[in-house]
């Protein structure tokens, strides 16, 4: 397990966004997912990263072996959907790795090193805490409703749509609003709006491993772009 600077993670995300924008879906996407998988494992997020990689592999097998057997509207619909998924998947997978392996204190200290305006840092810091908290609340609500025989499954929704909406959707909407207010109040209590420059006991700096990871992603992106424009053909 390794630890890297949060700024390195943001740089890697920026490279991945450029990759998704400029490189067509294909073998390069598989290589990029492999790079993200190794990065997630090295950062200590093993099982969730492997699960995301297996899901991508399953979608890729559908794209390669099942899709060519289909025709007509079904083929076109699945092709468009799976193409969109492949475009977004690397960014979403890497974002999950970054959020799951970055503490808010690390993120805030890294942004202070870069002198990023607070108008940008504060919303991002709250987002880092909002979605994990919302996911935890959703798990509690789902477990409680499961004791009453109510689940999020399409079959349960078709049988009793009003019950599912009242028991699952409405509570999560109320909880989402309440969680946002609580996180905002907590951030203000901790002095997030203090105009003075933040200090931190964390050792936030670029290390050799940061340089290696950024170099590997830049090298992979440059190679894919050169092949894409036909330099090596």
What would you note in describing this structure?
It is built from 9 helices and no strands. The longest helix is centred in the middle third of the chain and has 30 residues, at 72-101. It has 233 residues and is mainly α. It is flat, with a radius of gyration of 21 Å. Helix 1 packs antiparallel against helix 4, helix 3 runs antiparallel to helix 4 and helix 6 runs antiparallel to helix 8. The chain folds into 2 domains: 1-102 and 203-233, no CATH class; 116-202, no CATH class. The protein has helices at 6-22, 27-42, 46-66, 72-101, 104-113, 118-146, 154-159, 161-189, 208-228. The model has no long low-confidence stretch (mean pLDDT 83). The chain is 77% helix and 0% strand.
Give the low-pLDDT segments.
none
Q: Give helix and strand order, one letter per element, not per position.
A: HHHHHHHHH
Total of helices: 9
Structural class: mainly alpha
Explain the layout of strands and helices.
Layout: H1 6-22, H2 27-42, H3 46-66, H4 72-101, H5 104-113, H6 118-146, H7 154-159, H8 161-189, H9 208-228
Helix pairs in contact: 1-4, 1-9, 2-3, 2-4, 2-9, 3-4, 5-6, 6-8
Summarize the structure.
The chain is mainly α and 233 residues long. 77% of the residues lie in helices and 0% in strands. The longest helix is centred in the middle third of the chain and has 30 residues.
């Amino acid at each position: 397990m390794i630890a890297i600077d949060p700024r390195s993670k943001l740089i890697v995300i920026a490279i991945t966004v450029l990759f998704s924008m400029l490189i067509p879906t294909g073998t390069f996407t598989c290589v990029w997912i492999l790079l993200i998988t190794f990065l997630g494992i090295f950062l200590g997020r093993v099982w969730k990263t492997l699960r995301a990689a297996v899901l991508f592999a399953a979608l890729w097998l559908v794209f390669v072996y099942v899709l060519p057997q289909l025709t007509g509207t079904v083929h076109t619909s699945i092709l468009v959907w799976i193409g969109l998924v492949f475009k977004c998947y690397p960014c979403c997978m890497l974002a999950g790795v970054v959020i799951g392996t970055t503490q808010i204190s690390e993120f805030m200290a890294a942004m202070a090193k870069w002198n990023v305006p607070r108008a940008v840092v504060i919303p991002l810091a709250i987002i880092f805490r909002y979605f994990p908290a919302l996911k935890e609340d959703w798990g509690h609500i789902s477990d409680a409703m499961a004791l009453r025989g109510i689940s999020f499954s399409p079959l349960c929704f078709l049988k009793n749509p009003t019950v599912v909406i009242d028991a699952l959707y409405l509570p999560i909407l109320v909880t989402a609003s309440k969680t946002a207010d609580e996180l905002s109040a907590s951030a203000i209590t901790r002095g997030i709006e203090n105009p003075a420059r933040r200090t931190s006991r964390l050792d936030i700096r670029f290390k050799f491993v940061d340089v290696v990871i950024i170099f590997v992603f830049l090298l992979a992106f440059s190679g894919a772009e050169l092949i894409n424009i036909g330099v090596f053909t």
